[in-house]
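Encode chain A's predicted structure.
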Amino acid sequence: MKLDIHKQLEEKMASTIEALKVEFTTIRAGRANAQMLDKVRVDYYGTPTPINQIGAISVPEPRTLMVSPWDKTALSEIEKAIRTADLGLNPTNDGEVIRISVPILTEERRKELAKRAGKVTEEFKVRARNDRRDANDKIKKMEKDGELSEDDLKKAQEEVQKITDKCIKDIDALLTIKEKDIMEV
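Encoded structure for chain A:
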């Protein structure tokens, strides 16, 4: 028995999974990728602005990132934002571009990043559980309003649980992959 509520829940769960994938791209593994800087906000004329809106980010070598700002006056602010972003990166400013050498991760830093990935995963599981609760509340209201029988209520709630279990399983699988990626030397 599929209700609109189930379809909406599946869509929410799918968007939760996609959001987690995006979030994981900001947690670095051993090599450079432009998404590592996605959460960096630069104070650009008094406005916190995403770094990718101020300049182009490229990966010229496996362990190097390069930020080429469109406005050269923002170089020092970009450099400052990267230093204070708690990414463990040390940018160098040559007056034209900012080069960031991505250091090889220490075992301790790898464990910290894996722990952070686990914490992020837990937040997304909570999001999925909240979506489950909302769907169950809607189903209970439908039963109370006489739109569903008691048997249909049980079946609908079981379907909600199945959808949630699948989402949680997918989240755990993504975490396993990310942890493997982080711990890989």
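The mean pLDDT is 88.
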